[in-house]
Amino acid sequence: MQKKSILSNTLPIWIMTSLMTTASQAEIILHGTRIIYPSNNKEVSLQITNDGTRPALVQAWLDEGDANSTPDQVMLPFIITPPVSRVEPNKGQTLRITALPSSHELNQNQESLYWLNVLDIPPRTSGSNTPENFLQLAIRSRIKFIYRPGTIKQDVNQAPEQLQWKKLGEQLVVKNPTPFYMTLTSAFNKTDPQKTDLIPKGLILAPFSEQSVQPFNTHIHDIEFTIINDYGGRTEHTTTLNP
């Protein structure tokens, strides 16, 4: 999950004063690291909780991968209810996401990846102890939102075993022949005693795509890699490098 402080006048709601002192502690907690939307479902939901001591204003929207896009710039076939809400201290709110009929125009042969943004807008701080020059930041969290068409019949749990690893010149290439998005967090040469991570920054493999991961400079026969599953857990796998 990504967290980012927002300093932009393009968003419709949040409060800024000055650039001297800041407060930027996220108090809205998301109960999930990703959302999978099976197209056969009427809706999916995400529970959020205000872990702070003050009310928070929350704005939620989806984007197509551009972290700088604003809600008014994105037109997607989904509705979030409520898009804006007030969450009291130690209370929760359920965000419901519903697909519009136009969602059937999305590619039905593979998953589509979007990002859910949840903007935590704290109330304005006031009182005698508040510095004159004070900047209050809104904190945004982003998690993956994956639309999974019901026409896909393959088992997503078997997808990691279908990844194909091969040497191509001086590169190590991993190919995803499945209709699923796969997030890899690490990959190692099984016989490397130092366990040097081949993808230290992680990797998101789109359906039916391939990527080079790192200059290929060692002998590799078996590869150990870790995948994040639908529930946010990590599963480990071992495969043999293709000739």
From TrEMBL:
Signal peptide: none annotated. The keyword Signal applies. GO terms for biological process: cell wall organization. GO terms for cellular component: outer membrane-bounded periplasmic space. Its main location: periplasm. PROSITE patterns: PILI_CHAPERONE. Pfam families: PapD_C, PapD_N. Keywords: Chaperone, Fimbrium biogenesis, Immunoglobulin domain, Periplasm, Signal. Transmembrane segments: none annotated. Residues 174-235 form the Pili assembly chaperone C-terminal domain. Residues 28-152 form the Pili assembly chaperone N-terminal domain. InterPro entries: Ig-like_fold, PapD-like_sf, Periplasmic_pilus_chap, Pili_assmbl_chap_C_dom_sf, Pili_assmbl_chaperone_bac, Pili_assmbl_chaperone_C, Pili_assmbl_chaperone_CS, Pili_assmbl_chaperone_N. Gene3D superfamilies: Immunoglobulins. It is found in: Periplasm. PANTHER family: FIMBRIAL CHAPERONE YADV-RELATED, PILUS ASSEMBLY CHAPERONE. Belongs to the periplasmic pilus chaperone family. This is P pilus assembly protein, chaperone PapD. It comes from Acinetobacter boissieri.
